[in-house]
Amino acid sequence: MTDRIRDFLKGLPHEEPCLVVDLEVVRRNYEGFAAALPDSRIFYAVKANPAPEVLELLAELGSSFDTASLAEIEMALAAGATPDRISFGNTIKRERDIGRAYLLGVDLFAFDSKAELEKIARQAPGARVFCRILCDGEGAEWPLSRKFGCEPGMAEELLAEAAKLGLVPHGISFHVGSQQANTGAWDLALATVGDLFRRLEARGITLKMVNLGGGFPARYLKNVPLAQQYGQAIREALARHFGNRLPETIIEPGRGMVGEAGVIRTEVLLISRKSEEDPHRWVYLDIGKFGGLAETMDEAIRYPIRSERDGEATEPVILAGPTCDSADVLYERTPYPLPISLEIGDELLIEATGAYTSTYSSIAFNGFEPLRTYCI
Questions:
Q1: Distance (Å, rounded) from C-alpha 38 to C-alpha 17?
Q2: Buried b / exposed e across 203-238, counting CB within 10 Å, b at 16+?
Q3: Is 324 a catalytic residue?
Q4: For 171, which of 146, 209, 267, 354 could close a Cys bridge (C-beta 3.0–4.6 Å)?
Q5: Of all helices (H) and strands (E), which one includes residue 132?
Q6: CA nearest 239: which of 191, 311, 185?
């Protein structure tokens, strides 16, 4: 919570839940990443929060952009990015979208399979490509270990195939898992990548780039390392596995860039118990999983929640959203401590919600409006 957000909310009537993003926090985070890894290019992960104001600020600061779709590419271009500052980083792309992106000037594409590589060769001849390898994501609160990437041996053969198809084998990417609290998580992956670089060079293919991915965390209920600590650990790992022949590197912060910049304001709609003997109250909010809090699934992300009654005695409650879907429960396995004096109509502030909330918000499930976003 920043003073700027607090002052803004004072003048904003509560009609629906809303997200407020402080752009000054985004600016500070960008500058922090740039200082921590000065030799790496920053490719902001647009999917984290594609608000035009966020993209325009980052474009002005010099950021590049990691995009997952043609629509995100168009958003980045509209915000002022040039095509050479855009990566089509999704390994699952519609073939005609590859062709459209190429016509728009994008020439950096991710892949992790032969079929995807062949699509790129057909639609973006001569483009630079990088292969994503599997990474176990150990230590991450939200691992990304199976859907994306391929085994290193397959990556070697695919990058060799890329050259045969007329593409430019440019590099290798990996992702250590979202909300990665272990600064050493990049070391093992970089050991594998360094070995791949050397094996491919022996086959006459010289790679230039390592995409270090995202994983840089936002601070929720636990403290997390600072950007400088990640930067130091990554620089040491690069030196360890590449020696004096350091590759070009890029990073793809999303959550770490915008997560702590946002606050959701929500209202308590109902407080009840399921029986007279029920030890836990149920507290229903006007926002839930389908309104933008999808990352509470399996209670993976536990957001800081504040109220005007903070400082009073608390008890664990079960938090749920307003929809008629029984899956719309936020915290039940580990109930959330909230003030005993909490009442219907009270406002709560859900902090560190700048990432993966507005984009996860449904269009009109149960008729509820999508999450409104204000950038200040």
A1: 38
A2: eebebebbbbbbbbbbebeeebbebeebbebbbebb
A3: yes
A4: 209
A5: strand 128-132
A6: 191
Hey, where are the domains in the chain? 23-257, 260-375
Summary count for the chain: helices (H), strands (E) = 10, 18
DSSP 61: H
Class of domain 260-375: mainly beta
Q: Which of 131, 150, 324, 375 is catalytic?
A: 324
pLDDT tens by residue, 353-366: 999 999 999 888 99
Higher pLDDT, 142 or 48: 48
Q: Is pTM beyond 0.90 here?
A: yes
CATH number, span 23-257: 3.20.20.10
* Token pair belonging to 96: 């005609």
- What per-residue confidence (pLDDT) applies to 363? 87
Distances from the Cα of 158 to the Cαs of 134, 150, 254, in angstroms?
Answer: 14, 10, 28
Q: Do the domains spanning 23-257 and 260-375 agree at the CATH topology level?
A: no
Contact 87, 67 (CB under 8 A): yes
